[in-house]
Amino acid sequence: MWTKKAEKLFGLIGYPTGHSMSPTMHNEQFRVKELPYYYHAFNVHPDHLKEAVDGMKALGVSGFNVTVPHKVAVMDYLDKIDEEAEIIGAVNTVVNENGQWVGYNTDGRGYVDSLKRVIGDQLKESDILVVGAGGASRAVVTALALYGVASITITNRTVAKAEEIRRMLPENYHINVLNKTDAESQTSTYDVIVNTTSVGMYPHVNETPWVSEGLKRGCLCSDLIYNPLQTRWLEEAAANGANTINGVGMFVGQGALAFQKWTGIEPDTDRMTEVVVEELG
Ligand code: ATR
């Protein structure tokens, strides 16, 4: 941790924030890049969200991340919202731009970047199945649609929520919505399958959100969960020959984009990943 005078302050607001890996991840990057900055996690009760956001501006804070439960509510207290964050309907990164709070969502694009680090330009030609239709799915589907992939199919226990995500995107982004039975019968056609649900998350580590058999050859299975690091679904898919990417990918991806917006500097994502895995370990 920096003990010298920090020239810029960054932070995280959430409730709770005790288990967040963001302070360690960002402070380590400030050290690696020799930036005299500091990142602190602020536990902000929902009743005090407006005061916290206004107060940070008054104090000259340079930017902050937003986590559960403030990602939607914080939008009311910002000066400007980026277009992608507007479509997603949630903000996870705020930047002080000439005294104005500007809200972005780096979750989705951070996720796209993590996939690109694994399969590169192949992502553009990929048919993608997104399992789940909650907040994380919104971010992932929006970013994949804006990036431009071959096709996106959403499946969810509650099909109406998948329909809602399709509706929220501009009409020129064509999204397929399938119920679980129909999507499962087409499992062998997808190049990438991403689990955005909480199925398989600690403590329900034996549950799996999707099948791991009958996958397309070379399929990339991606889980947003990072507790446990390797979910049962990823383990089974890997045993059946699939490539896998765990939830650290998206976490690092969103953090890397936030870091870049705040500092103008490209962070070392390999080191960010190491730090997060160490912390989880
Ligand atoms: P997040 O913001 O992390 O995406 P969320 O908005 O609560 O969380 O969304 C949770 C997702 O996990 C939803 O797609 C949910 O399905 P429903 O929309 O049908 O509720 C899915 N999910 C949670 N538990 C599930 C379970 N046991 N089986 C299938 N899907 C589940």
UniProtKB/TrEMBL annotation:
Catalytic-site annotation from UniProt: K71 (proton acceptor)
Domain Shikimate dehydrogenase substrate binding N-terminal: from-to ranges: 12-94
Residues given in the record as NADP(+) binding sites: E83, G132, A133, G134, G135, A136, N156, R157, T158, V159, A160, K161, L224, G247
One protein family per Pfam: SDH_C
Gene Ontology MF, one: NADP binding
EC main group: oxidoreductase
One example of a Gene Ontology biological process annotation: aromatic amino acid family biosynthetic process
Binding site for shikimate: S20, M21, S22, T67, N92, D107, Y226, Q254
Domain SDH C-terminal: start-end pairs: 247-276
Entry EC no(s): 1.1.1.25
Keywords, alphabetical: Amino-acid biosynthesis, Aromatic amino acid biosynthesis, NADP, Oxidoreductase
Catalyzed chemical reaction(s): shikimate + NADP(+) = 3-dehydroshikimate + NADPH + H(+)
Oxidoreductase in keyword set: yes
Pathway linked to the protein: Metabolic intermediate biosynthesis; chorismate biosynthesis; chorismate from D-erythrose 4-phosphate and phosphoenolpyruvate: step 4/7
Family: Belongs to the shikimate dehydrogenase family.
Described function: Involved in the biosynthesis of the chorismate, which leads to the biosynthesis of aromatic amino acids. Catalyzes the reversible NADPH linked reduction of 3-dehydroshikimate (DHSA) to yield shikimate (SA).
Subunit relationships: Homodimer.
Record's protein name: Shikimate dehydrogenase (NADP(+))
Species assigned in the record: Alteribacillus iranensis
Gene designation per UniProt: aroE
